[in-house]
Amino acid sequence: MPKLRVGIGDVLDARPLAWGFLKGHHADLFAPVLKPLPLMGRLLAQGGLDVGLAPAIDAARDPELLALPELCVAFPGEARSLVLVSPSPLSELRRVYLGRSARTAAAVARIVLAEGRNLEPEYLEADTTPFPGAAHEAGRPRLERREAALLIGGTALRLALGGGQAAAGRQVLDLGSAWRELTGLPLVAGLWVVRPAASLPDLGFYFKSSLRYGMSSLSAIAREAAAELGVDSEEIARFLHESVSYLLRDEELRGLEELVRRAARHGLAPAGAAIRFLPG
């Protein structure tokens, strides 16, 4: 039987979920494939992957895809790795750079600004240097007054975990905290998404096993990430243990349903969209 291709993005928040596959567990059944996060939904839809750790909003946008039950990447409160940053008060925002790699975070940013702050700035998908004074890079506009950038993953964590100096003089809106304030629910950012044609008895068992191994290896994951990000490993381990939830329980399910409902209201998901789960 051909191995199932498991798409894994290089996102620290989700690394404990994928740790078993990354370290070769069940290598006779699964082949890990490292792909950029924004490509996961498209590759699953086109048959390039069998399972992918994808933005939650992708599962809502494609009715042919199924989500694996019981597992997710969620933020019960402060996310720290999903933030909007601006040199100006957020009430003055006129333009927001969303980047191209975070569909769920981009949808949440639009929702919390519109519903929580009554703001409707212009949204651009172009990447940006995240704050004034950062070195200008070719093709990346420097962030000016009344502009904000969506930062995710390592870039956001360096800001959050790098100490007060990293955030000095900048307005920072944590999307996990803003979503909790707006809805009273956790923010579900990612799901294991499955092609309907991918079949393996007790599929969920192997993915739960990968998470168990990841949670028992948080120190190793933190050390690896610390070397990549230049952030203290103990801070990263604390972030993974305290800020991220990996179990899709009742409250997370309600948060996921609320995300899809509000995204559809804002035209960010199809009308009547819903996430369907793999039976069993």
Structure description:
The chain has eleven helices and twelve strands. The protein is of the alpha/beta class. The protein folds into two domains: 140 residues, 3-Layer(aba) Sandwich (D-Maltodextrin-Binding Protein, domain 2); 102 residues, D-Maltodextrin-Binding Protein, domain 2 (3-Layer(aba) Sandwich), CATH 3.40.190. Strands 1, 2, 3, 4, 5, 11 and 12 form a seven-stranded mixed beta sheet that branches. The longest helix is centred in the C-terminal third of the chain and has 16 residues. The radius of gyration is 18 Å and the shape is globular. The two termini are 22 Å apart.
CATH superfamily of the largest domain: Periplasmic binding protein-like II
Uncertain segments are 131-140
CATH class (first level) name of the largest domain? Alpha Beta
Beta-strand portion reads: 15-25%
Q: What letter string, H or E per element, gives the SSE order? A: EHEHEHEEEEHEEHHEHEHHHEH
- The total count of helices amounts to 11
Shape: globular
CATH topology of the largest domain: D-Maltodextrin-Binding Protein, domain 2
Main β-sheet, in a few words?
7 strands, mixed
Output mean pLDDT: 87
- End-to-end CA span: 22 Å
